[in-house]
Amino acid sequence: MTATTAPRTRLSPAQRRTQLLDLGVSLLATRSLDQLTIDLLAEEAGISRGLLYHYFGTKHDFHEAVVRRAVDDLVEQTAPPAGGEPLDRLLASVAAYVDYVVANYEGYSSIVKAAQGGNDTLRQLYDDARTALTDRIFTADAQGDLVADTPAARLMVRGWAALSEELVLTWARDPAGVSREELLGALTAALPLLADLAR
Amino acid sequence: MTATTAPRTRLSPAQRRTQLLDLGVSLLATRSLDQLTIDLLAEEAGISRGLLYHYFGTKHDFHEAVVRRAVDDLVEQTAPPAGGEPLDRLLASVAAYVDYVVANYEGYSSIVKAAQGGNDTLRQLYDDARTALTDRIFTADAQGDLVADTPAARLMVRGWAALSEELVLTWARDPAGVSREELLGALTAALPLLADLAR
């Protein structure tokens, strides 16, 4: 033990739960939700299953907490930078989304699948995240430089989000000769083109 | 009974099964897959549940047969006309898709949900239909007037299909002031614009 080692302190239950959620989210990156079991988390955390049930209730509650945390991370990590040209800010946000999907492919694609398949709680978390991501486009672009804020444009931005998700998940499995830069360029350019169609 | 009534003939088992599938598909238009039960079909067809199990095996087999038939209908009904300008043919195909979704909203949206949620058989049927619909764009447009046939363009057409599905399902629930003609115009114009981004 060296002088720089932090003193070992007893974590509060809330801190311990947060730490376990961090671990759950990091395990989910390379696993599907189905593979992310209480047993696996217990083994990785070196604590008993009983204690995990104490923190998370049921397996369903555990998955809900992990997914809530994962989509919060996604929304946070893909926030556009505060300043800059609208198209550059959109590009930065799209780049962060692509990198997130690549880094968390197994978990992210299983969340999308579970949400679309009618697990109501996960669907709500997913819809909230989708709404946060698309509403942010109108907040980040308050002057309407890229997209005028009309009901038709909001409909089109939903379509663009579906296109982006499909393209990025497909590209992450098989890039088909498309480079990351080409993908980012196409997704970024697509939004104002599509929004113009909704005018 | 009048002279124009067709003589009552005994249907072959294959004809009877086809007739029951027709009824199943028409019931599905305004119902979700979950609501389309063997009991309902038996009642509507005026035959016993036992006989239906004879024709379709399990409820799962029944749903598979109905979905197979429904997606075949979708692919057939949205076939582009044989002649005409590429963009007009695309518009006709998109219009048929929008009208199909509106006329079969409950059943179609429940098929999409079941397929995306990981029912493997339904997912395969749905993926096959999606592939048939998107591959057809390259067959119908063999000269590449709208979309050059490259791996990047095939990726982009998948994205356009996801965008179209999301937009049409959302619009069918709430048009948000967007007319059918505006929707058709935007979806049709979007394909060559998006494909250009993949060049």
Provide a descriptive summary of the structure in words.
2 copies of one chain form a homodimer. Chain A has 9 helices and no strands. The longest helix of chain A has 23 residues, at 151-173. In chain A, α4 runs parallel beside α7 (120-140), α7 (120-140) packs across α8 (151-173) and α8 (151-173) packs antiparallel against α9 (180-197). Chain A is an all-alpha fold. The first copy, chain A, has helices at residues 13-28, 38-45, 49-56, 59-77, 86-103, 105-116, 120-140, 151-173, 180-197. Helices cover 72% and strands 0% of the residues of chain A. Chain A is elongated, with a radius of gyration of 19 Å. The mean pLDDT of chain A is 90. The A-B interface holds A 112-114, 116-119, 151-152, 154-156, 158-167, 170-171, 176-178, 182, 185-186, 189-190, 193-194, 197-198 and B 112-114, 116-119, 151-152, 154-156, 158-167, 170-171, 176-178, 182, 185-186, 189-190, 193-194, 197-198.
Shape of chain A: elongated
Low-confidence stretches of chain A: none
Largest sheet of chain A: none
User: Averaging pLDDT over every residue of chain A, what do you get?
Assistant: 90
Helix content of chain A: over 70%
Main interface by residue count: A-B, 36 and 36 residues
Which class of secondary structure composition applies to the elements of chain A?
Answer: mainly alpha
H/E topology pattern of chain A: HHHHHHHHH
Distance between the termini of chain A: 65 Å
**Number of E-type strands of chain A:** 0
Query: What amount of the residues of chain A lies in strands?
Result: under 5%
Quaternary state of the chains? homodimer
In angstroms, what is the radius of gyration of chain A?
19 Å
Counted by DSSP, the helix tally of chain A is 9
